Amino acid sequence: MSKEKSYKYLVIGLIILGSVLRLTVFWVSPPNNAYDDHLEVIDIYTQDFDRPAPFQCWECYQPPLYYYTGATVFSISKILGASQITSWKMVQAINPLLSILLLIIASQILLLFKMQKIVNAIVLSFIAVLPRDIFTAAMIGNDYMLVFFSVLAFYLFLKSLNALKKGNIVWQWFIALVLAAILGSLTKQHGLLLNLFPAVIFLLLIKKVYRKMLYWAIPIILLGVLCSLLEEIWKYNQTGHLLVSNQDYFNYADNQYPGSLKKVEFFTFRIFNLFQDPFISQSTSASFFTELFARTFYDYEWRFISPKTSWFYYLGFIAYSIGLIWFTFFTIVIASWVKSNKKLDLKINWHSATTKLTPILLAFLFMIVPFLQTLRYPYFSSMKSMFMLSGIILLILTLGSLMKNKSFVKRIGAVIIAVNIIYGLVLVVSISIYVNTSLNHLHGPLWPIP
Question: Is the residue at 44 inside a domain?
């Protein structure tokens, strides 16, 4: 069997592995195990499918798409005769199913970048075992639906660019892209950022060679932006607050640490504290970058594991060590790319530049969301890497496209893939083995089943 064919099967295997990891955590974790009580909102929607006021409950201010979807799944399950707990489990299944589709779409994005199969496998191994992605996909909540639409929008953006480069009519891809941006906006507030993708395509159409396409592009993008903004306009009319938050009406987070912007550490990274204590504590929860790092690579705010089990202290050490390996690897990738492009090419390839720079910019915008949230509400619940998960995945995919099939990739690529696979398996197997003990000692509550 040729190496190309072997790597093709490896990519398929990584998609299957990632799917199994997510479905396993979904299966062992009850539907009421989540950071916030999204079950309450879905229950309100199921009553008569009318939208509640933004201040009716803690999460009622969220955009409606996920909750209408959850309410529909719950209602259909009940009609089919499922029990209450089974119906909620079906609602919980929405996100892991989206995560499996995300892995497939991510693999298609890598194919559009036309990279070597070994590079595809390396990049996909990062996404397949990314702990923050696995944990978010296992929970009832609207965060993962935004991640899905972000990656789908990236795929549609690349398809639009490729069609534009070939001089083909791109209206079908452009309409699909605008629709993905609208759906993302109706899932989470910062889904509005997805409008950057169609905006860039629109700007490219201003070029003389494409200008005829503006006749249909202008009404489409205007309609898309309007539909995306209608959600925030409605909430502003309801509340008088621009980009309203639940914390404008509830003080549930007031007792969280650090509690004051003066106490938030924006310039520290307490990795040694994490090695000593891998779980959320006052020694690390005020450090902005420590929080984001810990929540990305481990169950820092323990929702699936528990400090009561000593093994999870050792696993935390492993998790953060692997996180540092990831950072080192991508630093080498960036440095290698910069070195190979030292000579400034004055003749810029617009297609290549747009393909790389747009998702990197969008990833950066997603990554400053927790920063802005922390400025507004200086509590550790604002420093969630879940808020920037879309950006993390977009960045992994884009940085992966910078990899060249050079010697260092060949030398350490197989090792990186193996390390990622082993860590993903050990993490999920550990969660499964100790789940009954862990659920009795979670950092937050198991929410009441409506």
Answer: yes
Residue-range definition of the domain harbouring residue 291: 3-243+256-438
Of 255, 295, 292, 444, which is closest to residue 368 (Cα–Cα)? 292
Residue 384 lies in a domain: yes
CA distances, 143 to each of 101, 129, 132, 385 (Å): 15, 18, 11, 11
Residue 314 makes CB contacts below 8 A (sequence gap 6+) with: none
Record the pTM.
0.95
Tokens of 324: 């540092």
Q: Is residue 446 part of a domain?
A: no
Question: Over the stretch 380-414, which tens digit does the pLDDT of each residue have?
Answer: 888 889 999 999 999 999 998 888 766 666 678 88
Instruction: Give pLDDT tens digits for 172-184.
Output: 999 999 999 999 9
With a cut of 60, say whether residue 348 has pLDDT above it. Answer: no
Residue 55 lies in a domain: yes
Q: Spell 38-55 as b/e; 16+ CB within 10 A means b.
A: bbbbbbbbbeeeebbebb
| Domain count of the fold of the chain | 1
Alpha carbon dihedral 252, 242, 46, 37, in 10-degree steps, equals: -20
